[in-house]
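Task: sequence design from structure.
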């Protein structure tokens, strides 16, 4: 049997391995996001559904704060509207004296029970929650990207390990690779009494199970490469459908040439296994599960991004959450994603979610500005408040567009769902408060009319 001499030099070994890249440590809210997303694991557009459900759950939890804030805001706006005639009179009277105007306005507001700060605290709390969620979502996006890549490396390694001789599989021609492990003297040596479990190599005991050391821990083996049983490889290769035997010149071919042939054979199948894993899970990360829109919701919905990014883009995105990623991982990344060339050349989106996020935030700001028209117009003697709110109507959509453009499509889905929820809640709350305010105003007016009539009767 023609087997290369393992002890002669490690250059006789072939290396068919790729490196995984650490992990991202999640915070508690990251685990909450993960738990919700896992509910939709395996489902079409599962990540998008998870983002929507997460947003609805979070918004429902903080709904009391939103309701309190919006009710207070609407009441203050209605109070301001009721004071409009007096405030417009003050605006004319103190048109050239902003300080005096502010003083008189404060006196008038105090008399009517108006407090512009009453709705601020819940709004601040909501903003803090948004920023916390933004940070967690960004971190989880990179956690998901990194997990996907690492799972692809596992699929790649498992495909290689299908050909590695183990304690219970050495007789089959398929097992033509022999693991080379550290012998304790910095020299690799042959090892066939091994067990492979979850991509990890363990020493096998006499029964073919994982052997334990004196402390009862399983003995893990570090594999530095593989030597080749050329006869087994030749027999296995010739048994495959569509493949011809290697021929008579195989035995006389140089070792380096043989090694490259075997290495290429194994790598082709390992690359295919990694790509198969990615495509098998693509229905979860695409939105919708079709090729005409977002291929991977963990990257922005943008023609400037590819469904499967280059290593430099991947490293840039991952480094935001996992820290610096060494350039030495580039060869492994390119090897694992070798069969995903189509995805590497496909736009990840068409800016649809970015436009929606900007448009809906503009609509929300417009409705909010209209709802606070009196406060904006009468908040300052020169109407500067209205100008400031008009600026906010432009700035806030730009900020949301920035988030959508540079962060994941999943976060864009969160922002869009959040905005729609807030819009609906605002319209319902504003309507309910307006109706109640009108009824209370009518009731107060009726009481005043009754008091006036009673005073006339007494006279």
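Answer:
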């Amino acid at each position: 049997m023609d087997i290369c001499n393992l002890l002669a030099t490690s250059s006789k070994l072939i290396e068919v391995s790729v490196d995984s890249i650490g992990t991202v440590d999640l915070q508690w809210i990251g685990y909450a996001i993960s738990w919700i997303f896992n509910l939709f694991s395996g489902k079409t557009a599962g990540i998008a559904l998870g983002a929507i459900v997460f947003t609805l759950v979070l918004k429902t939890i903080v709904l009391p704060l939103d309701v309190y804030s919006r009710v207070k805001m609407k009441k203050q706006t209605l109070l301001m509207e009721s004071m409009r005639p007096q405030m417009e009179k003050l605006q004319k009277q103190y048109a050239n004296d902003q300080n005096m105007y502010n003083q008189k306005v404060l006196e008038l507001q105090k008399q009517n029970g108006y407090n512009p700060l009453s709705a601020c605290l819940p709004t601040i709390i909501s903003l803090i929650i948004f920023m916390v969620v933004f940070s967690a979502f960004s971190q989880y996006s990179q956690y998901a990207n990194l997990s996907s890549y690492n799972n692809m490396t596992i699929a790649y390694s498992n495909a290689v390990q299908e050909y590695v001789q183990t304690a219970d599989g050495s007789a089959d021609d398929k097992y033509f690779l022999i693991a080379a492990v550290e012998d304790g003297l910095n020299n690799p040596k042959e090892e066939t009494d091994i067990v492979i479990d979850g991509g990890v190599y363990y020493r096998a005991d006499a029964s073919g199970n994982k052997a334990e050391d004196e402390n009862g821990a399983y003995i893990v083996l570090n594999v530095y490469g593989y030597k080749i049983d050329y006869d087994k490889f030749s027999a296995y290769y010739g048994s495959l459908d569509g493949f011809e035997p290697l021929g008579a010149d195989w035995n006389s071919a140089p070792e380096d040439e043989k090694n490259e042939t075997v290495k290429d054979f194994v790598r082709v199948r390992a690359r295919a296994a990694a790509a198969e894993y990615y495509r098998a899970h693509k229905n979860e990360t695409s939105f919708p599960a079709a090729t005409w829109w977002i291929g991977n919701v963990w990257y922005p919905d943008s023609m400037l991004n590819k469904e499967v990014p280059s290593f430099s883009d991947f490293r840039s995105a991952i480094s935001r959450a996992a820290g610096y990623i060494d350039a030495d991982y580039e060869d492994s990344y390119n090897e694992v994603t070798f069969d995903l060339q189509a995805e590497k050349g496909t736009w990840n989106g068409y800016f649809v979610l970015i436009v929606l996020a900007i448009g809906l935030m503009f609509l929300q700001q417009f409705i909010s500005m209209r709802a606070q028209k009196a406060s904006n117009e009468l908040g300052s003697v020169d109407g500067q408040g209205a100008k400031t709110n008009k600026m906010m109507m432009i700035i806030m959509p730009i900020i949301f567009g920035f988030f959508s453009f540079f962060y994941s499509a999943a976060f864009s889905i969160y922002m869009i769902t959040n905005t729609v929820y807030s819009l609906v809640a605002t319209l319902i709350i504003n309507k309910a408060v307006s109706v109640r305010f009108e009824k209370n105003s009518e009731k107060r007016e009726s009481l005043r009319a009754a008091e006036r009539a009673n005073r006339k009767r007494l006279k």
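Residues 409-458 form the longest helix (50 residues).
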